[in-house]
Amino acid sequence: MSEKRPQKQAKNDSKASALKVLQDLVEVAKILAKGVGDLHNPGVSLAALVVVVLIIAVVVAAILLKEALILFGLLAFVLLFMLCIPNIVRTGTERKLESLGRTEGGQEITAGAGSGVNQAKLDRLQRYLDGMCRSAAQLSTVGKEFLRSNIFVPTGSGTLKIPRGLHHNMMKADELTIEIPEGYGASGHAFQQRTAVIARAKGGWGQYVLSPKEMVKLHPDLKWIVSLPIPDSTGNVLGVANVDCLEHDRSAEELRPLISEMGYWVNLVAPELATA
After folding, report:
1. Fewer CB within 10 Å, N side or C side of the chain?
2. What are phi and psi of 230, to 5 degrees?
3. What is the pLDDT of residues 12-51, one digit of tens each?
4. Is 132 or 96 the better-scoring residue by pLDDT?
């Protein structure tokens, strides 16, 4: 009897230690889940949460079972899953695009001089630009054919321009040559002030009017523009993402919800521009 009691006590101590480790790991999982959730990418969040759960399972199994073979097997499974994360992240973005509708008749883009990015990167950016328009169509109740999107980047001489291919549904050729001084227009203001901008044609564009030389390049049916700065991981602004609309006017209050929705796409665009 005296020998069984120490064994029973040791077993209870082992279980208590396992439970304590499990509780600590759950707290770590909560912290990681909250941090990853801030990335605003459902694919990343899902992948990270599953990895955290699997790691918890590995540690707890190792403590309770004390079987090296099981531990190695579970670790191998976790490693295999982590190698699949890039596909899971891509699938998360695809689900977002599919919820807005599949891309139909997207314009062809070409990598090369003036774009600053290769074809694969341009393809991804074009999908994100299409996603911005689809989000705007849902929130503004405007047909997608009236919505356009683009990205302005700094030229290095105090102005912003649209690189070749970084636009969607823009058919007026001279619009693509617009050069906006930093601090002027919707894009220039968003870039310099690092803040979202809503500009409307009603009232003559107000403080966001451009020089006559650039104003004549605008589409005559342009009604409003929503501009968001594109920050990198250090806070520097890489450029400006815009969604605008032809023919259908909306009030500033009606357009405000579009800012947070565009933020999702800007978070996807930023790392692509940062590595261009």
Report:
1. N
2. -110, 100
3. 665 565 556 556 555 655 555 444 444 444 444 555 566 6
4. 132
